[in-house]
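Thread: assembly with ligand

MN 10:42: here's the input set. Chains plus the small molecule as SMILES. Want everything predicted jointly, not piecewise.
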Amino acid sequence: MISIRDVSTVFTTAGQTFTAVDAVSLEIPRGSIQGIIGFSGAGKSTLLRNINLLERPTSGSVVVDGTDLTALGDEDLRRERHQIGMIFQHFNLLNNRTALQNVELSLKFAGVGKKDRRRRAQEALDIVDLADKASSYPGRLSGGQKQRVAIARALATEPKVLLCDEPTSAVDPRTTASVLQYLSDINAQLGITTVIVTHEMNVIKAVADNVAVMEDGALVEQFDLADLSRPGFSPATQIGRYLISDDITLERRPRVQQKEATLV
Amino acid sequence: MSNVSVAGALPANGATAFDLNRVAELLPEIAVALGQTFAMLLVAIPLAVLAGTPLGIWLYSMSPVGLKPRPKLHRVVDALVNTMRSFPFLILLIAIIPITRFIVGTTIGTAAVIVPLTINAIPYFARFVEQNLTQLGGGVVEAARAMGATRGQIVRDVLLVEAKPALIGSITIMTVSFISYSAMAGLVGGGGIGDFAIRYGYYRYETGVMFLAIILMIVLVQSVQIGGTRLARRFDKRR
Ligand SMILES: Nc1ncnc2c1ncn2[C@@H]1O[C@H](COP(=O)(O)OP(=O)(O)OP(=O)(O)O)[C@@H](O)[C@H]1O
Ligand SMILES: [Mg+2]
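BT 11:07: finished. Tokens for the full assembly:
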């Protein structure tokens, strides 16, 4: 469904060049949930933004559902984006529009007429169980509810692909579970190919079918989630092993003995 | 030891600070002056909003962080806007007399003041628009681009909607400063309440009348500010 072929993204700032995505190739099967994990600055967001060309790759190509997006002009690309939903860590909802109006916006941009817009936006809010919040402004919604509105906004145009950039990094663990449940249900029921970027292994373990590990812009390893439960399986790279162990290990040094006098 | 007091500034005819007869006598003139101030504001501010908004959107869009960066062209227009804004209002008023004559056919009176006021207000408001749009941050623009919005849709359906409360606040600030700018209208016979205060207070030493005019200006500024703040709050749904 999504083919990322030898994609590199090089940023030039003040004469300095920086390779944020380094020759990444990745095949994401139709209807699957692909996790992309890595530490901060690994290039995960840049790679995700390469898929809908919010960030045009410096080289390589991106093919979504048979269309080479990197070969399209601005206008054709804009139209293709109606088929690719996206959600963000900080939701990126419009504060001065209600939940329903926020959802309607993606339909408006996709060229859906006014009457259909209202109905389809309501249906999309219904999928994320927020029909009762249709007329609430985002300022009155919790983080989890905002992300659900954002999911409804992305879904309303019935996209083939859903891109998620740290969708649960700004909400608490219980809300994380609820948001992931919706993403998983949507994937199962609507068959939307989903890509989730995260730095949290428990998110990957909960929803992903496949996982790609990134480090310093490069894709260093890929495995199926099913592999994790196979006895004796261990990621090949050190970073992969570190990520799946998801506990924090510190080097705890012995406490310095306090002098009695300082306590008086 | 000279004791400069309000009483010391009173004219020989004995008008006291609150001589009601004198006030009653001048009431028609005060009404005319207020009318002139309203005329200046009601024409100049809407024109400035109408012309300054597209200019501000343009400045934002073409800036290096905008929707369609054109850094070189942006620098040129940016410098032009700064130049326009550098002119002290009094000098602008006189410098553009030929333009004023061309547009309204006269160089004196209220109509003649509206031209420099508007010309001064356009780049002023454009800066407000540019700043308000820039301050929104990239999140909503990024989301709109991901949804496949055109640049026009991003401006109309996203940026202007989100910036509306801030823009109302900017219009309020601009209106308040123009109430005092319009006082300089007297120089070209434009009238207005500020000019009235200067004529009676400064040239004729009728301090009481001047105070009355100033109180009217304070009331005007307060109402504009309170009204503007309320309106901005009504449109602001962040909380
Ligand atoms: N527009 C840009 N210009 C210059 N450098 C950039 C730009 N965008 C990203 N980078 C750099 O590219 C690198 C990768 O950034 P990216 O946001 O893709 O990382 P990430 O893996 O998503 O990290 P995080 O987990 O913190 O979100 C970072 O070092 C970042 O500073
Ligand atoms: Mg990121």
